[in-house]
Amino acid sequence: MTPIEFERRYAPTWDRLDALLGWLDVKKARLPDQHWNAESIPPLYREVCHHLALARDRGYPAYLVTRLNGLVQRAHQVLYRPRTRFWTLAWRYFSLEFPALLRANRGLMLIAAAAFALPLVVMGLLVYFLPELIYSLMPPEAVAQMERMYNPSGSVIGRERAGDSDFLMFGHYIRNNIGVSFQCFASGLLFGVGSLFYLILNGLMIGALSGYLTQLGYSETFWSFVCGHGSFELTAIAISGGCGLKLGFALLAPGPLTRRAALVAAAREAARIMYGVVVMLVIAAFIEAFWSSSRWIPNEVKYGVAALLWTLVIYYCVHQGKPARTGRGRDE
Question: Taking the model in full, what pTM does it have?
Answer without folding.
Answer: 0.71
